[in-house]
Amino acid sequence: MEKASALPLVSVLVITYNQEEYIVQAIESILSQRCDFEYELVIGEDCSTDSTKEKCLALQAKYPSKIRVISNEYNKGLLRNFYETLFECRGKYIAECAGDDFWTDPFKLQKQVEVLEADSEVVLVHTNWRELRVDSGIVKPDMHSRKPYFKGNRIGREYTQALINQMKGPFVYTCSACYRKSIVEKIYHRYPTFFTDERYPCEDYQLVFFLLQEGFFYYLDEETVTYRRLGESISASNNPAKSFDFHYRNLLLRIDIIQELNLNLHDASEFLQYQSYSLSRLAFKAKRKDLAQMAQDKFAAIGFEVTSADRLYNFITQHSMLLQTAHPLYQIGRRIKGLLRKTTS
Predict the structure, then answer these.
(1) DSSP states of 306-328 as a string?
(2) 224 and 97: one domain?
(3) 3-state SS, residue 13
(4) Domain span holding position 289
(5) Can you state the percent helix, strand and coil of the chain, rounding each to 5?
(6) What is the pLDDT of residue 143?
(7) Are residues 144 and 283 in the same domain?
(8) For residue 291, what pLDDT is reported?
(9) Is the pLDDT of residue 19 over 50?
(10) What is the DSSP letter of 108?
(11) 248 with 320, same domain?
């Protein structure tokens, strides 16, 4: 068997669970990279119940000098699987590709590493990307330009407030990113709870936030990756109770970061208002008074004043007689709105 390189410059981190339809394309897109340095591919396979593991192991057998599969004996969940796999990586730099996404530029790593090697103040290099909607097959290019967070190719801590108020879509799409492992180790040990507490619904937001406190981000305005938007996911569910759970846990993460760094709560008002709006409507749609109470209590605990409309939604949801009357009317209104949208399109 061919031996793996002793010290790859880059480790490409792939986290996967039950992605048998997509994992081969993800891995092969990484193997297509053309660069003048060594890189490895480290796969955190989280005890899938389909054929994902077998497909990963087959590719490892075919490319033993490039691929290492870490097969979990039980399902560890997103947060733990991500960071445990990350610390198995041996590269100076870490790049990511989700198991259901794929890279499209064979020079992605080369371009990003050249920036990182040339400027020690840059901690992360990211790129543009496109979105593929699986249900319709529609491709949306140039996704970065659709996000209002920042312009220009180099930013620093002055964008902390913009990141705190991230709402729809990522500030940095991490599957387009390449960053310094040494800085990840630094922030992980300084703020361990944010990378291990399973109350938090994601692995990427806190990583990006704390990396931004340590240096500059550099943006390459080139599409290098396709993000596959599935019909149902952790962050986008048609089930209002599940969607509430994601939004609420995202709220907890953001509040904890604000309090940890002694940031001004007022600076996060856009995000907090958006979350209050979302949570009140989702609790109403789910017809769950316990969820409405949870959201109400959390905003009260941090002293954030929600709008009168949000208070009204929470009030109705917590009173069954009102809910029984209002919920059918709400559904009728949604159907009428949908019909009007169709007739005008």
Answers:
(1) --HHHHHHHHHHT-HHHHHHHHH
(2) yes
(3) strand
(4) 240-344
(5) 50, 15, 35
(6) 86
(7) no
(8) 97
(9) yes
(10) H
(11) yes
Q: What stretches of the chain show up as alpha helix (H) in DSSP? A: 23-31, 52-62, 78-86, 108-118, 160-164, 181-190, 193-196, 204-212, 240-260, 269-286, 289-301, 308-317, 320-344
Neighbours of 34 (CB within 10 A): 10
Q: How many domains does the chain have?
A: 2
Domain termination residue (choose one: 229, 253, 283): 229
Instruction: For 176-199, write each residue's pLDDT tens digit.
Output: 999 999 999 999 999 999 999 999
Cα gap 242→63, rounded to integer Å: 39
* Arithmetic mean of pLDDT, 139-145: 87
Q: How many CB atoms lie within 10 A of CB 43?
A: 29
| Candidate from 173-182, 280-289, 320-329 with smallest mean pLDDT | 320-329
Q: Of 189, 209, 229, at which residue does a domain stop? A: 229
> If you ran DSSP here, which 8-state letter would residue 121 be given?
T
In this structure, how many other beta carbons lie within 10 angstroms of the beta carbon of residue 82?
21
Among residues 39, 44, 46, 38, the alpha carbon closest in space to that of 14 is found at: 44
